[in-house]
Amino acid sequence: MPSDRAPNAETAPDAVEDTTMWSLIGQAVESVPPQIPGVDDEAMRLCMTLHCATSLVFYDLSATLRRADAVAAPTLKLLLILYMYGEMESRDLIRLSGMSRAAASALLDKIVGQEMIERRLSERDRRTHVVTLSEKGRTAFVEAFTVYNARERYWAETLTRAERDQLIGLIGKLVNARLDDGNLRRRQ
Amino acid sequence: MPSDRAPNAETAPDAVEDTTMWSLIGQAVESVPPQIPGVDDEAMRLCMTLHCATSLVFYDLSATLRRADAVAAPTLKLLLILYMYGEMESRDLIRLSGMSRAAASALLDKIVGQEMIERRLSERDRRTHVVTLSEKGRTAFVEAFTVYNARERYWAETLTRAERDQLIGLIGKLVNARLDDGNLRRRQ
DNA sequence: CAAAATTTGTCAATAGATTGACCGTCAATA
DNA sequence: TATTGACGGTCAATCTATTGACAAATTTTG
Fold first, then answer.
1. Rounded (5°) CA angle B39-B44-B47
2. Which residues on chain A are in Cβ contact (under 8 Å) with B124?
3. Which one, of A86, A88, A74, lies nearest residue A148 by Cα?
4. Which of A22, B1, B13, B108 has the largest count of CB atoms under 10 Å?
5. A82-94, pLDDT tens digit by residue?
């Protein structure tokens, strides 16, 4: 039914209006690597699939938190770590957060301002602080994580238990092979 | 060698200084779900693994582009789509980008300013534009994507071909089961 | 013990992305 | 045809995260 919108069949891999972010992967992998010498289509498919899927899943998880008026995902991660350890030095919290030092430090500041985390200078090392989860922070974490995990289940339950284990194992292999590689680029 | 830094064995799941972003997953999955009723540890492990791995991989890929003084990853994605289609309406480019309309529109503006994309009003629909990859844009794309894909291969080559296919299949199953779910939260 | 190197937190500058609102344009329908 | 609703792009406001540089504290090394 679209007349003058039909794409040029020579250049376009497929009708663009029927293409989605997800179906784009297959088309891109078929059409791009043959045109550029040395490009590996399998690696491209793997990374593009991973990126696209992650984008869908974690946007959805974040939106779920927002809709529930809960803390945002980066905050949830800091609270989770602190919930595990109870009390720790901010250097470790920042390191484990996966964010850059500057970003984690700024976020921590904000959460301290919201009185969900208490912070005092460390006596052992005057460069760092000791941080503790406040009662308010503990409550906010449990509330948010309950909502968050319910949605995690929504995603996970499309796979069987065996498939989940397989997926986790494969991702684990991918990461572990590179983790102690000095070549890996990491956040500052 | 750490003396007074030994964590409290009752609250801490493990010595915090030996913990990494990656090993944190196992500890978190073991220690948090038992404390919060209704929390599903398998779903948590799956999502946390996915998130952590993706964060490592795509930070590394972006840093690879930066180090090579190539275009950034979001720009690369727009150029990739345009490279596939040659010429298309910006509405489709924006939709396929996976970003919000506002973000994609602003980014497109910037790339047009850099003369890597040409944009003219569409005659068919005066709300949208027709965008084309310029010669400069094509060159920038091929250069950047060559660097990017070489690094994708670095990640992908830790898996056998069968494992890669399996991983792609599992992620595909995860996403496809939810894609046409009206319940899915999407960007505006 | 002194000097050099590293660690930790923070600042400034920047870049990028989000939501929600708005306006002009197009499509559906009454 | 006129009205209603949907769509496409952009604006403003906000928020988050990044790098690179710096200072203070600590650790390592000579």
1. 150
2. 4-5
3. A74
4. B108
5. 999 999 999 999 9
